[in-house]
């Protein structure tokens, strides 16, 4: 900063218009696209821009967003949880078995489901923290392990009321209290949407307003520097996988309650969708790092696009392509168009 002749400091030079435009596009581009897509679908189908359809969109992305919040927490510590889809499937199957085969209460099934999610997280923590296996390889192995275990404990069959076990009908069924979590409403708002909102608030406060969250971000930025600063990196990484496992377990419980049965592989689609939502979140407001707000917006973006394409009668098999395209665009925005990035 220099002084002009009258002694007042000279204002710093403004950035060129092109640079300012690029920065604005980097920070707000994804939000602008979301608004534009919403307006387009609303103009194409009047039923799209209604309160009832908004609830449908939110309900369709609630489980994705919950699972994605767990993935986001694991990413803040420099990890990457590829086992979330298998975790969801495993929880769906164990909750179904608890009620249908063993005739346990819905509350007991929920407790068993949460413990199952922690079991998956525990295996991830052992492999990553204790054995020193790289995150991607460790969680990939855990994914196959629990996919296989879900098949073994159910003999590869779906679990539903009235199924036969050893030539006899199963003694239990899904309880009405349990299924309420998947299809019930509170003041016309679906229960999964309420659970998603509550967990998003908790995750935001945890990551942004607690020492644990700040420690996780520090580890994700530079694990060695965090260790030298006195942060117990191993324990915090185990905590991150525990949170991811619990989020996947909650998603599995809600999915099981929505389906009213245990379908093998029911959680498989949630891996790609959750990872896509978390990575799309990198491009929201130029965060360029895992964050709760971005993850929520990413899940909403996916839900809006899929819902709009469905209303326009687009073939169902185009949805995976669209999700992949959204992910690629967001990654390019985050990692290639970052202002000041040197090539």
Automatic annotation (TrEMBL):
<feature type="transmembrane region" description="Helical">
    <location>
        <begin position="185"/>
        <end position="207"/>
    </location>
</feature>
<feature type="transmembrane region" description="Helical">
    <location>
        <begin position="84"/>
        <end position="102"/>
    </location>
</feature>
<feature type="transmembrane region" description="Helical">
    <location>
        <begin position="292"/>
        <end position="310"/>
    </location>
</feature>
<feature type="transmembrane region" description="Helical">
    <location>
        <begin position="316"/>
        <end position="337"/>
    </location>
</feature>
<keyword id="KW-0813">Transport</keyword>
<feature type="transmembrane region" description="Helical">
    <location>
        <begin position="269"/>
        <end position="285"/>
    </location>
</feature>
<keyword id="KW-1003">Cell membrane</keyword>
<dbReference type="InterPro" id="IPR001851">
    <property type="entry name" value="ABC_transp_permease"/>
</dbReference>
<keyword id="KW-0472">Membrane</keyword>
<dbReference type="Pfam" id="PF02653">
    <property type="entry name" value="BPD_transp_2"/>
</dbReference>
<protein>
    <submittedName>
        <fullName>ABC transporter permease</fullName>
    </submittedName>
</protein>
<feature type="transmembrane region" description="Helical">
    <location>
        <begin position="54"/>
        <end position="77"/>
    </location>
</feature>
<feature type="transmembrane region" description="Helical">
    <location>
        <begin position="238"/>
        <end position="257"/>
    </location>
</feature>
<feature type="transmembrane region" description="Helical">
    <location>
        <begin position="144"/>
        <end position="165"/>
    </location>
</feature>
<feature type="transmembrane region" description="Helical">
    <location>
        <begin position="108"/>
        <end position="132"/>
    </location>
</feature>
<keyword id="KW-1133">Transmembrane helix</keyword>
<feature type="transmembrane region" description="Helical">
    <location>
        <begin position="28"/>
        <end position="48"/>
    </location>
</feature>
<keyword id="KW-0812">Transmembrane</keyword>
<keyword id="KW-0997">Cell inner membrane</keyword>
